[in-house]
Design goal:
The chain has seven helices and six strands. By secondary structure, it is of the alpha/beta class. Helix 2 packs across helix 3.
């Protein structure tokens, strides 16, 4: 079981240490699970509203352009056939859903593996005192600089809603704030560092521990 120091925001000395749950932070790292879960997440975000008009949908073309025989030209029934400019599209895309399912077991294994990967890389920081007393982006920058995370892309993981922190970090392009309930593989992998609030560790245990619920 790995032990990690807990950093106190605004102070130089650690505020003790905490044991990381091996079920969550020492899980097998399987790249193929990352691929499957990220693919599922990105597919679910697709709008799927693309569409084209077939020959029934384009306007015009109700009159036969010339008589069937005697002109020397190929017979044509409508100027909105696919071979005509402005004609309908053949087998074009239609509105559809791209989302697909993965089992809960697979999704949980992928998220555990992503968190374990960041621990192996030494990219996880546990901190306490992440709350703000107002909407201040500058305060978030100072907080990250104090923790040595100012030059990295950081995902801040919190237990519950924290409007001041969530809104204040919104203007920082390399910083994301996410609640434990919404923690996912894609966001973990696309940020270099993880900053986890101490209170969020308990919530992570309830979600991904041995007796955890859904992914």
């Amino acid at each position: 079981m790995a032990s990690v120091e807990v950093q106190e925001v605004g102070k130089k000395k650690p505020a003790g240490s905490v044991e990381l749950d091996p079920v969550i932070f020492e899980a097998p790292v399987r790249a193929h699970l990352f691929h499957a879960e990220v693919r599922r997440q990105l597919a679910a975000r697709r709008a799927g509203t693309h569409a084209t008009k077939n020959r029934a949908g384009v306007s015009g073309g109700g009159v036969k352009p010339w008589r069937q025989k005697g002109t020397g030209r190929a017979r044509q029934g409508t100027i909105r056939a696919p071979q005509w400019a402005g004609g309908g599209v053949v087998f074009g895309p239609v509105p559809r859903q791209y989302d697909h399912k993965l089992t809960k077991k697979t999704r949980r294994a992928a998220l555990r593996g992503a968190l374990s990967l960041r621990v192996k890389e030494g990219a996880v920081t546990i901190a306490q005192g992440l709350s703000l007393d107002g909407f201040k982006t500058k305060r978030v920058v100072e907080m990250l600089d104090g923790l040595g995370l100012g030059e990295s892309s950081v995902l801040i993981v919190i237990a519950d809603a924290n409007p001041h922190l969530e809104v204040s970090a919104r203007n920082l392009p390399r910083v994301g704030v996410i609640r434990v309930a919404g923690l996912n593989v894609y966001d973990v992998l696309r940020h270099e560092k993880l900053l986890i609030d101490r209170a969020a560790l308990e919530a992570l245990g309830a979600r991904l521990g041995a007796e955890g619920g859904v992914a």
